[in-house]
């Protein structure tokens, strides 16, 4: 049975490492991420008989983690005031007066995006670029693109408007495109 993998130390260690990286990117707090991962793994181990093999075991455990992260974010929202920066970085410097890429900041052409996605080094650079984003921008991007939340769920969890959510997603994509263009794709040949 697939749930037996939860008792396999090698599988569990790799899964835990991946879960921790994901939780740290979402929560930006090592202790909170560690707690969420431990709670998710404990829940998975205690409820492994409920695993019905409709998805991969890893997917099922990550879904549990996603719910734990949502709980943490909602709890933080209740206890803290989320302040959104009016200016999430100096993204205006990337554009000219017509809102086109400025000549000196235009992203390089990407040589082979498909091959890059298979590269571990690419994902390390991507993660570094993601960590450079302002916290609210990165969190919104991760909730949409990694966790798969729709706009309404993101807005509810973070206490932001839909238009603010779209602005944050747009800024995240622009900043990631620029960062990857500069730090990854510029070094590849077409």
Keywords:
single chain; 190 residues; mainly alpha; Rna Polymerase Sigma Factor, Chain: A; Arc Repressor Mutant, subunit A; 2 domains; 8 helices; globular
Helix content: 55-70%
Element order, helices and strands?
A: HHHHHHHH
| Annotation, overall tally of beta strands | 0
Quote the beta fraction: under 5%
* Number of helical segments with 4 or more residues: 8
Radius of gyration: 19 Å
CATH H-level superfamily title of the largest domain: Winged helix-like DNA-binding domain superfamily/Winged helix DNA-binding domain
- According to CATH, the fold-level topology of the largest domain is Arc Repressor Mutant, subunit A
What would you call the shape?
globular
Describe this structure in words.
- The protein has 190 residues and is mainly α.
- It folds into 2 domains: 2-79, RNA polymerase sigma factor, region 2, helix turn helix motif (Rna Polymerase Sigma Factor, Chain: A, Orthogonal Bundle), CATH 1.10.1740; 91-187, Winged helix-like DNA-binding domain superfamily/Winged helix DNA-binding domain (Arc Repressor Mutant, subunit A, Orthogonal Bundle).
- It is built from 8 helices and no strands.
- The chain has helices at residues 9-27, 30-46, 57-79, 113-117, 120-132, 135-147, 151-158, 162-183.
- Helix 5 (120-132) crosses helix 8 (162-183) and helix 6 crosses helix 8 (162-183).
- It is globular, with a radius of gyration of 19 Å.
- Mean pLDDT is 79; it is low at 81-88.
């Amino acid at each position: 049975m697939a749930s037996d993998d939860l008792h396999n130390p090698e599988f569990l260690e790799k899964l835990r490492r991946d879960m921790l990286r994901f939780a740290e990117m979402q929560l930006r707090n090592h202790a909170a991420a560690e707690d969420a991962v431990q709670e998710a793994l404990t829940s998975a181990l205690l409820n492994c008989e409920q695993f019905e093999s409709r998805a991969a075991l890893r997917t099922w455990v990550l879904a549990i983690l996603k719910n734990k992260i949502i709980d943490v974010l909602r709890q933080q929202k209740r206890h803290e005031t989320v302040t959104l920066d009016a200016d999430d970085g100096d993204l205006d410097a990337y554009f000219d007066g017509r809102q086109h890429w400025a000549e000196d900041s235009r992203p390089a052409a990407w040589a082979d995006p498909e091959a890059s996605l298979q590269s571990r080094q690419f994902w390390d650079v991507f993660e570094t670029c993601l960590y450079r984003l302002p916290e609210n921008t990165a969190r919104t991007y991760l909730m949409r693109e990694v966790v798969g939340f729709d706009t309404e769920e993101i807005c509810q969890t973070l206490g932001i408007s839909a238009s603010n959510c779209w602005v944050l997603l747009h800024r995240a994509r622009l900043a990631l495109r620029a960062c990857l263009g500069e730090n990854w794709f510029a070094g590849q040949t077409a």
